[in-house]
Design goal:
With 169 residues, the protein is of the alpha+beta class. It has four helices and seven strands, in the order βααβββαβαββ. It has a seven-stranded mixed sheet. Strand 4, helix 3 and strand 5 form a beta-alpha-beta unit.
């Protein structure tokens, strides 16, 4: 398996959507075509990167958004021009538990550093244990927790914002 960052073809977009819908939706996460298309569009405009885990097909993806394309809500923590934001990380159930989510995050941190961004931010549902472990293994620390009933439909309905220094690996 290889991990790389590259533009997204139309065929890749279909594979990524299948990956999201078959392996990314759970009690803690949901997606729709608009959100996925927006991320792919940012990659193709050079405002984000897609990190792909590939074997015979795409088995994992992480989207990292740069600078002022990051969510505006992050400007209360850091200057948007100096940060990046990992929007989504999805790994096929075929390779769950093998550390690929953590490796995708590490690759994102490296891309952020290579592109001159100081910090990498990410968010998760407060009660999502798998995401918590993946983020902790990658060096992310909690910055804030807030009630987010519009985005979070189950459990505490809280969102946790985390950050880590960018670093070249």
């Amino acid at each position: 398996m290889k991990m790389n960052s590259r533009n997204i073809s139309e065929g890749d977009a279909d594979c990524i959507k299948t990956l999201f819908y078959e392996h990314g939706i759970n009690d803690w996460n949901s997606f729709d075509d608009r959100e996925i298309n927006d991320q792919i569009s940012l990659v193709n405009k050079g405002l984000a990167d897609a990190v792909l885990l590939e074997g015979e097909r795409i088995l994992g993806v992480a989207f990292i958004v740069y600078g002022v394309s990051c969510p505006a809500k992050l400007e209360k923590y850091h200057d948007l021009r100096k940060i990046s934001f990992v929007k989504d990380v999805v790994v096929s159930s075929e390779v769950h538990g093998q550390g690929f989510g953590t490796k995708l995050l590490e690759y994102c941190k490296s891309l952020a550093a290579q592109n001159g961004y100081d910090q990498v931010y990410i968010e998760r549902h407060e009660e999502n244990i798998a995401s918590r472990r993946m983020m902790e293994k990658s060096g992310f620390k909690i910055v804030d927790t807030y009630h987010d009933p519009v985005k979070r439909k189950v459990g505490s309905r809280n969102t946790v914002i985390l950050s880590a220094d960018s670093q070249v690996i």
